Amino acid sequence: MSAPTVSAAPTLTALPPTDAPPTPTPLPAVIDADNFIGLTASLSVAEGEMVRSLDYSPDGSTLAVALGDQAGTVQLFDTATGVPFRTLAGHAGIVWDVAFSPDGRFLASSSKDATVKIWDWGSGTLLQSLPFPGEIGSVAFSPDSTTLAAGGVKQWPNAAIWTFAIPSWQPQLELAEFWNIPAIVYSPDGATIVGGGTSRNVRIWSALDGSEQHILYHAGQVSSLAISPDGSTVASGLCEQSTPGQCTLGAVWLWDIARGRLTAKLSDFGEGVAAVAYSPGGSLLVAVSPTGEVRAYTTSDYQPLHSFSAAGTSPARILAMAFSPDGRWLATGGIGGIQLWSVRP
């Protein structure tokens, strides 16, 4: 009987070294009432530019910026890096406002050249140019992306907000106001349009038939509007007191949107209020003055939560502000560029 065969031990082959997968960069925290005090400047965008308006794309990847040049330039920036990746050229005058449609298909820009232009911002293609009687100060899309509202000068001293069906771009409603329309907002359910400002009036209309619901009378011109995520409150940023050519006292006034009644005044902003915005989660109302004073209020009682000065950083003078859709970034823009603020994880 032969001896059993013993198999040799297998030879081990060394595997080539592999790089460890990169550690994902942690996202900033969602900005809310608990952490707003930890807000810090994280990224500068459009340095050296003048920014009149800005808006985030619905997915948060892109920041559309209306530059303050006479050429009417709209520039798109990657929000992760702050690098510009596309310029939308076509206006013949200053662009006052930009807005993305909530479904992400379109970007609208309004201009001193009496047009609103509709862009396929992903490709940079101009899809539509809507003509108007005078300059257009503001644009807004309805929450369901089926309607575009544009506000501006009709024939001095008359102004209007015009609405258009999407995607035919056929006119629907004309809502009468006076002087000019620096701000338009839709209620979260799309049933209401709020707009106005230069005349010291802000009007509330039905978005269905254009019937006027309320007139909100202010002590001075209104620069910006925001509606709380629950649709109950309109916040208006205004100039309460002024000398010729200079606002000396600003405020944020709060209104019950259903009744058209003033419920509170948040005052003492030097040189006016440049912009107001609710955080996407609804726990904060943030207001900013042109001089860079940023204030946050808790929406549970509208008591002051925290304030800080953006002075000394870029931009030097603030004209616009917006939260990112996920609430992790706050962008302030103006003379000198844009600063993105976040709470470090």
Structure at a glance:
This protein has strands at residues 39-45, 51-56, 62-67, 74-78, 84-88, 95-100, 107-111, 115-120, 125-131, 136-141, 147-155, 158-165, 171-178, 183-186, 192-196, 201-206, 212-217, 222-227, 233-243, 246-256, 261-269, 275-278, 284-288, 293-298, 303-309, 317-323, 330-335, 337-343.
Largest sheet: 4 strands, antiparallel
Order of helices and strands: EEEEEEEEEEEEEEEEEEEEEEEEEEEE
| Residue runs with pLDDT of under 50 for 5 or more positions | 1-15
In CATH, the architecture is 7 Propeller
Number of domains: 1
The residue fraction in helices comes out at: under 10%
According to CATH, what is the class?
Mainly Beta
The overall pLDDT average reads 91
Number of strands: 28
What do we call the CATH topology? Answer: Methylamine Dehydrogenase, Chain H
Based on CA atoms alone, the radius of gyration comes out at: 24 Å
Task: Identify the notable features of this structure and list them briefly.
single chain, 345 residues, Methylamine Dehydrogenase, Chain H, four-stranded antiparallel sheet, 0% helix, disordered N terminus
